[in-house]
Amino acid sequence: MKGIPCLKFEKDRVCGACQLGKQTKSSFKPIKDIISTRPLELIHIDLFRPTKTKSLNGSRYVLVLVDDFSRFTWVCFLKHKDQTFSHFKTFRKRIEKEKGFLILKIRSDRVGEFVNQLFMTYCDEKGIKHEMSCPRTPQQNGVVERKNRTLQEMARTMISEYDLPQYLWAEALNTACYISNRIYLCKNSLKTSLEIYHSRKPNVSYFKIFGCKCFVLNTKDNLGKFDAKAYEAIFVGYSTTSKAYRVFNRSSLTIEESMHVKFEESNVVIENVVEFDSLGEDMEKLFLKDSPIQEEKEEPIGDVQKDEVKDSQPLPKDLRTLQIIPRNSS
User: Fold this and answer.
1) Range of the domain at 169
2) Would you give the DSSP letter of residue 185?
3) Counting runs of H as helices and runs of E as strands, what totals does the chain give?
4) Which residues, in sequence order, are CB contacts of 40 under 8 Å at separation 6+?
5) Which residues of the chain fall below pLDDT 70?
6) Phi (first) and psi of residue 172, to 5 degrees
7) Is residue 47 part of a domain?
8) pLDDT at site 250
9) At 191, is the secondary structure helix, strand, or coil?
10) Are 180 and 207 in contact (CB under 8 A)?
11) What is the structure's pLDDT at 274?
12) Is the Cβ–Cβ distance between 47 and 62 less than 8 Å?
């Protein structure tokens, strides 16, 4: 080729014009080894973005906490994201007494729920080092970000299996967290997260299919001699405070806990498990009525601001439920 001038190029020289036109994000290499040496040495924390549909107890946000050493996971359900600070304080007190260790470090992304004066002052007082990812770089908080995705995908699949209403998402997510702690093997180990964290092998013989139809023995009503001894319900999880199952009572629209449960775990999907017609014509109108639920106004903590999100599937007005407790024990 003729007419090309002889140019001299310097090796490893940064071309400003090329960077302005073609620069890309830096790559993030996966961490192959666990960087902590004991439980609670490092806790990864993150907050779900708000969901479009409220849960049974009115929650929209989920605070996810992952122990770096064992990958044991906890979830806390919040109605507003400015409750993050109070839930973290409660979690720290309970978990440190449970294990006898102190939390040394926490790692979060750089958002208002974790970067505010109250949160920073509290960490300084308790001697907790707060590590934060760079702005708009969630990859540096990848442990809990991946756990978020895993829990959401598990919950979405569990809800879709029996075509359950979306307001049961918190129960599905809680059960997904409970299961993942007992079945997933920790990195570079043949032990589950629960086995590493609690030093004992988990028992999964009592696991049931989420969303399946079940029959609960009626022990609370004064029954007649020929009244039905049980009622239909939907299995939605496991109790953390007693040896019992959590079921959704379709007649009273409440979450109940009972040990006297018989399950129908067939491979055939039962289409009418949560059919609106079975709840009565009046309740069907309440489900389908497009009336947004009014949010209770609260003052934000520190620099935290609230998000305004409309309900895509409002709850019936008569809906009553027990408080959902985060998974924290075997």
Assistant:
1) 42-288
2) B
3) 7, 10
4) 67, 69, 95, 96, 99, 101, 102, 103, 104
5) 1, 267-330
6) -65, -40
7) yes
8) 83
9) coil
10) no
11) 43
12) yes
The gap between the terminal CA atoms of the chain, to the nearest Å, is: 74
Which of 173, 167, 130 minimizes the C-alpha distance to 150? 173
Looking at residue 314, what is its pLDDT?
56
Q: In residues, how long is the chain?
A: 330
- Which pLDDT does position 316 carry in this prediction? 52
Q: Does residue 42 contact residue 108 with C-beta atoms inside 8 Å? A: no
Answer yes or no: is 61 within a domain: yes
For the record, the structure tokens of 220 come out as 């609370």
- What is the number of structural domains in the chain? 1
Residue 158: exposed, middle, or buried by beta-carbon count in 10 A (0-12, 13-18, 19+)? buried
pLDDT of amino acid 11? 74
CATH number at residue 68: 3.30.420.10
Residue 98 is given by DSSP the state: H
Name residue 75's beta-bridge partners: 64
CA–CA separation, 237 and 257 (whole Å): 9
